[in-house]
Each structure stands twice: as C-alpha cells, then as structure tokens.
Design a protein that fits this description.
This protein has two domains: 2-53 and 263-404, no CATH class; 60-258, no CATH class. Helices cover 58% and strands 17% of the residues. It has helices at residues 2-15, 17-54, 69-74, 84-93, 126-130, 143-147, 157-164, 206-214, 232-246, 258-301, 303-311, 316-356, 369-395, 399-404; strands at 59-64, 98-111, 114-123, 135-138, 152-155, 173-176, 179-187, 192-193, 196-197, 202-205, 221-225, 253-257. A hairpin with a 2-residue loop joins strand 6 (173-176) and strand 7 (179-187). Helix 2 (17-54) runs antiparallel to helix 13 (369-395) and helix 12 (316-356) packs antiparallel against helix 13. It is elongated and about 105 Å long. The two termini are 30 Å apart.
Length: 406
C-alpha cells in the first residue's frame, strides 16, 4: 500500500518536473545553508582553539589589577605593583610551576645601516617552553643570562632577515638604544598568532631589561604553566591568595587561566552558531512555505481525482497519506540535493570566507556529520509540517462536491 502511494507520488512529481524542482529549491538552499554555515563556524572554532593552544597549554596569566582612585587613596603606601620579586617568590612557593615574567619595551634595534623599530620583550628561559616557541638556530635565554644581566638577544625570524639578510645572525652584534647586545639565537617561524606576529619578536633577559631600560623592578605580567590541567582552578585561587598576601592584603593582581579564554571563545562561537543557524533555518522555513503553497495548488488541480478516489472507496487517511507522502518526498529529495550542495558550498564558499578572515590561511570549513543529520532531519520535518495542512484539506473534501468541481 505505502509502496504504491510512494510510486504514485513520484509519478505525480515527475509529471510536473519544473514545478517540483522549483519547490525543492527552497529546501535545497536551506539545507545547504545550514551545512555551510555550521562548517564555517566549526572551522573557526578549531582554528581559534589551535591558535590559543599553539602558544602553550595549561597557562595562567597574571596582570596588575586596575584600582579605582578611591582604592589607590585607601591603599596608599602599600605594594600596588607586580614586581620581579613576585615571580621569584612564586617559583620558591610553587616549585612545580614554570614562571616567565614579562616586561615590554618599545625600542629600536640597529646594526650597521639597518634598523628595526618594534617591541622588545624582557623575559626568562621558561618562556620558550611555556609558549611552545623555540629557536631554530642558536639558543634561547638561559639562567646564566638572567643571573649576570647578560646583554644577549634572541631575534624573531623576520627581524633576523631584515637586519642580516641571508647571513647567519648568531654571534652578530647589534645595538638596542645605546647598549650593545650579542645575538644568541633566531626563533623558529611562527607567523601571526591571535593578532600578533611572532616572527617580529625580540627577547632579552628580564633582569637586563630592568637594569638597563627600566631602572626599577616592576614587570608588566607573568605567564605560568601548570603541569596538571585538572589543577588549574585550584592553582589559580592559591596563586591569587599568595600574591594578595605579598601585596599587603591589597587585591591589585588579576590571575586568569587559559580555560577562561577558551570558554569565552566557545561562548562567542555559540552566538555565531545561533545567528547563522537561524538564518539558514529561515531559508528552510521559506522552502516549507513554498511546499505548502504548491501542495495547495495541487489539491485544487486534483479535486476531481480526489472525489473519484473517494467515490470508489478511498478513505480519508488514504488521501491524507497520499498528499503527505508527496510533500515529504519533495523535502527528502530536496534535502539530499541540499546535502550535496552544502558540502560543495562549505569547501568552496566556506573556505573562501575563512580565507578572508584574519589568519584564515590556517583554517577552513569543517563539516561534521551532526550538521548534515540535523539539516536533513529538519528538512524532512519541514516537508511533513508544511504538507500536513494541504493533505488534511484534500482528505476532507466531499466526494460529491469534488466530482462536480470544474
């Protein structure tokens, strides 16, 4: 019975190929939109997470907390700065943690007739492992460089090429401000990560930066690696309390863990999912309205046929099932074509959009089976939902009135 009704539905759709195709178009576009939009968002999520984790995992970030004018007045005379001694104290109190103090200096590096103006980072040997950023030649900063205020410098790949071209930079002399430094390493190519070009970084010992360029022991921030990911929250709280105690009870320090950044990224991407998915679903609903409109026209055109079927014994549910199967068939076939089109759109248009985004060269659309299943199931549901009213209208026709219909 169902097989005969399905074959009859296909026959009727094939008999009106152009109209059926145009009706399916809304479903096809809707399904393809859902798949392509979700693929773009998934690709973006993978790229963002990889970008963050490429700079190291299980990280804590420590900054100075901005205080209000009233708080500054209240805590006048107390320690309201993040200092190099804080980093040393953390290493002593939490020996299992890797701690890299950070200060940044805007300056110019110069050798011969070549120079480069940029940001110079004063840090410690731990930075290389914490940030998963290692030298391609030479070496990174070592403990001896920190202890002796050594005037050694490690260059990013781009800066080494600007200053020395194809020559080896290792052992070369350059000037930072009025001070002469020796190049001890050139970092591996890293490219732009999360808005910062890592190939344009310059590293010097943190103690050297404090002594020769700052004249005090204040640092900008610290990056801390926690060995056990499951201990991130606990260590964050312990570290925060420890620093508050060191700072005379003043809460002038912010401690954030990497998971908070990943959570913020995920929340942002969920917003994109909802917005883009909503747009695609609207396209599917428009396709559903098209199905209902065409099915109502079909019911009108086949009124005499419906009357004849009822006159020879067809029941209401037979007529209902017949037209419901036709509308569902339209959505199923349209859904299948939409899946194929969506895959091509994701890897074509989706990748084009991804490539146009900042850093998009490293990521593209990612199609998940879940997106395909959701889009297809929703398309079928649209076919059933919007085909139900025309089918019910057809099933309620009076046989005598239907046979007299002209």
């Amino acid at each position: 019975m169902l097989g005969a009704i399905f074959r009859d539905a296909l026959k009727n759709l094939w008999g009106n190929r152009l109209r059926s195709g145009l009706t399916m178009l809304g479903v096809i576009i809707g399904v393809a939109s859902v798949i392509a939009m979700m693929a773009i968002v998934e690709g973006g999520q993978i790229w963002l997470v990889n970008s963050i984790e490429r700079l190291g995992t299980n990280l804590l970030f420590v900054w100075k907390n901005r205080l209000t004018v009233e708080e500054k007045r209240m805590f006048a005379g107390r320690n309201l700065q993040l200092r190099y001694d804080d980093a040393l104290a953390i290493r002593k109190r939490f020996p299992e943690l890797q701690v890299a103090p950070i200060i940044e200096i805007d300056g110019q590096v110069k050798t011969g007739d070549r120079d480069y103006s940029g940001r110079i980072t004063g840090t410690s040997p731990e930075f290389s492992d914490i940030r998963n950023f290692h030298p391609a030649s030479g070496r990174f900063l070592q403990t001896a460089d920190i202890q002796t205020w050594n005037r050694s410098v490690v260059l990013g790949k781009t800066i080494a090429e600007v200053l020395y071209g194809s020559q080896s930079a290792i052992g070369q002399q350059l000037k930072i401000g009025e001070h002469r430094f020796t190049v001890i390493g050139v970092m591996e190519p890293k490219g732009e990560v999360y808005g910062q070009n890592r190939d344009e970084m310059i590293f010097i010992p943190v103690t050297t930066a404090l002594r020769f360029f700052k004249g005090h022991d204040k640092i900008r921030s610290m990056i801390i690696h926690v060995p056990d990911r499951n201990q991130m929250e606990k260590v964050t709280q312990q570290l925060h309390q420890f620093l508050i105690q060191r700072h005379d009870g003043v809460n002038d320090i912010r401690v954030r863990n990497q998971g908070e950044f990943l959570g913020a990224v995920d929340q942002t991407l969920w917003t994109f999912r909802i917005v883009l998915g909503g747009i695609a679903i609207v396209a599917l609903l428009v396709g559903g309205i098209g199905i209902m409109n065409i099915m109502l026209v079909t019911v009108t055109e086949r009124t005499r046929e419906i009357g004849l079927r009822k006159a020879i014994g067809a029941r209401r549910k037979d007529i209902l099932l017949q037209f419901l199967i036709e509308s569902t068939t339209i959505s199923v076939i349209g859904g299948c074509f939409g899946v194929v089109l969506g895959i091509f759109a994701a890897y074509g248009f989706g990748n084009l959009v991804a490539q146009s985004m900042p850093g998009g060269g490293d990521w593209g659309a990612v199609i998940k089976p879940t997106a395909i299943v959701v889009a297809f199931v929703f398309a079928v549901a649209v076919g059933i939902g919007f085909g139900l009213f025309p089918a019910m209208k057809a099933s309620k026709l009076d046989p005598a009135e239907a046979l007299r219909y002209q």
